[in-house]
Amino acid sequence: MEKFQQFINKTLVCSKCNRKLDFKIDRKQLEELRNSQLFNFVIMHANDHTLVISVDGRGEIRRSRIATLNAIEEEKKSNNAFQDIQIIEESNNLREAFVNWFEKKK
User: Fold this and answer.
1) CA neighbours within 13 Å on the CB side: how many for 64?
2) How many domains does the chain have?
3) What superkingdom does the record give (predicted)?
4) Which of 33, 64, 80, 97 is placed for a possible disulfide with 91 were both Cys, Cβ 3.0 to 4.6 Å?
5) 106 residues of the chain, pLDDT tens digit each
6) Is residue 55 part of a domain?
7) What's the pLDDT at 88?
8) Is residue 2 part of a domain?
């Protein structure tokens, strides 16, 4: 008779930094899940990114993705998309900007 194992052992390699990650999943966290449901685990292993994996009720990894923690770099990239557009007025409050625009149209 096999001894009941409390943990499911898994190993992944991060595609961004090529670091080998060993982790354990507690079976108690998965016992309530149905086959169609997924449980997300976040594996923080670097300063600038983390790994998010989705596990089904049997402990099988269904999806994995890398989440970047460096929001400043993303903000710089998104601002570059509007580089050629002329800025008429800058505002930090959308409602206030709309009211000002509406008042000017009157």
Assistant:
1) 14
2) 1
3) Archaea
4) 97
5) 456 688 889 898 888 888 898 888 888 888 777 667 888 888 888 888 888 888 888 888 888 888 886 655 555 555 555 566 666 666 777 788 878 877 887 6
6) yes
7) 65
8) no
* CA atoms in the 13 A half-sphere facing the CB of 65: 6
pLDDT of residue 59: 82
The per-residue pLDDT for 83 is: 65
Q: How far is CA 29 from CA 8, 70, 75, in A?
A: 11, 30, 36
CA distance 45 to 26: 19
User: CA angle, corner 12, sides to 6 and 16, nearest 5?
Assistant: 145
Is 9 in a helix, a strand, or coil?
A: strand
Q: For residue 43, is it within any domain?
A: yes
pLDDT at 1: 40
What are the tokens at 77?
Answer: 């990239």
| DSSP per-residue letters across 60-88 | -EEEEEEEE--HHHHHHHHHHTTTTSPPS
Does the residue 25 lie in any domain? yes
Place of tokens 């460096």: 70
Query: For residue 36, what are the domain limits?
Result: 7-105
